[in-house]
Design brief:
elongated, Rossmann fold, Mga helix-turn-helix domain-containing protein
Length: 239
């Protein structure tokens, strides 16, 4: 009997993982997701919209409602931590980024634990729920920020350029699109990271110079600050 219960619980776990929806799926398929009157989910939705000051679209509310219902069922049934590949590492990496969005989400999820008894009980039973919240909100928040268009160049080697790209992506939670000069097709990027001076038509674009001796420990904070300034400027231009 105990073996059968474990198998059923595992099958339910797989069911939850296979049925998680993305914002795009909620929008594309116009899913008829029934309204959920769970007090904890309604509290989550209300508090997030108030504290993030984001105006969520209908399909984004469906995205949160549907996935939260799945995760809360899982948290009510299972105890301990989920063994989902790279879940903890992804969230820890996200939380280490000194940026507005990670700070907001981290503060919000902590407030849920403190202020809502039902959510606190679910997290105590299933601590991975905390990580699920972060991933859900991370994906959703990225939809409300236009990606930063970044020209990344290196005359040293393609490997050096790839190392720069990795450094950039690891240093921010903001959505970023990486371009070569040719891929821009005459458009201007939001910023340039390069070991060579910008082209004449791009000299008014914010520029971060790097060199052959650019190492992970060397002016890493300056590069992260540069990306953060680009994001702040893009938000200001949008507003």
């Amino acid at each position: 009997m105990r073996t059968k219960q474990k198998k059923c619980r595992y099958l339910y776990f797989l069911f939850c993982r296979a049925n998680v929806l993305t914002p795009e799926e909620c929008e594309q398929y116009l899913l008829q997701i029934p309204s959920n009157n769970s007090p904890s989910i309604q509290y989550f939705l209300t508090q997030f919209q108030e504290k993030s000051q984001l105006s969520l679209k209908q399909h984004e509310i469906k995205y949160l409602t549907y996935n939260l219902a799945l995760f809360h069922r899982e948290a009510a049934i299972f105890s301990g931590r989920a063994k989902t590949l790279d879940l903890v590492k992804s969230v820890e990496k996200f939380n280490r980024v000194d940026d507005t969005v990670p700070k907001l989400i981290k503060k919000f999820t902590k407030s849920l634990y403190k202020e809502n008894d039902e959510i606190r009980a679910l997290i105590q039973n299933f601590p991975s729920l905390w990580h699920y919240y972060t991933i859900l909100l991370w994906i959703l928040s990225a939809k409300h920020h236009q990606p930063i268009k970044l020209l990344v160049q290196s005359s040293i080697s393609s490997l050096h350029r790839q190392a720069l790209i990795t450094q950039i992506i690891n240093g921010t939670s903001s959505p970023i699109e990486i371009y070569t000069y040719e891929q821009l097709n005459g458009e201007k990027p939001d910023g340039i990271v390069s070991n060579q001076p910008p082209e004449k038509n791009l000299q008014d674009v914010p520029f971060f110079p790097i060199s052959l001796f650019y190492m992970d420990w060397h002016n890493k904070g300056n590069l992260a600050l540069f990306i953060k300034q680009l994001e702040t400027k893009k938000r200001g231009d949008k507003g």
